[in-house]
Amino acid sequence: MSHNESSAREQAEKISSGESEPHHIGKKTNKVLIQEYFSLINVKRMFRNKKWQNKWNEVTTDLRKLPASERSSIIESALKMKNKGRS
Prior knowledge:
mainly alpha; 64% helix; 0% strand
């Protein structure tokens, strides 16, 4: 049974018991996507490994599913957070 076929409760129980890898259950909110994108772009290049690349692919896939204006807004918000940390 895939992640999509089992209920959220079943998925949560499998994650808690260690039977399944941790993953997001349900649709991510824009706030979650902003934070994930910010976290990823804030990682220095020398620390970007396979795990980082997998997460990057997941987040960018989620972003591509959104309308262009919403996607742009999320990316812009994350970049503002990054630039705010530099000042």
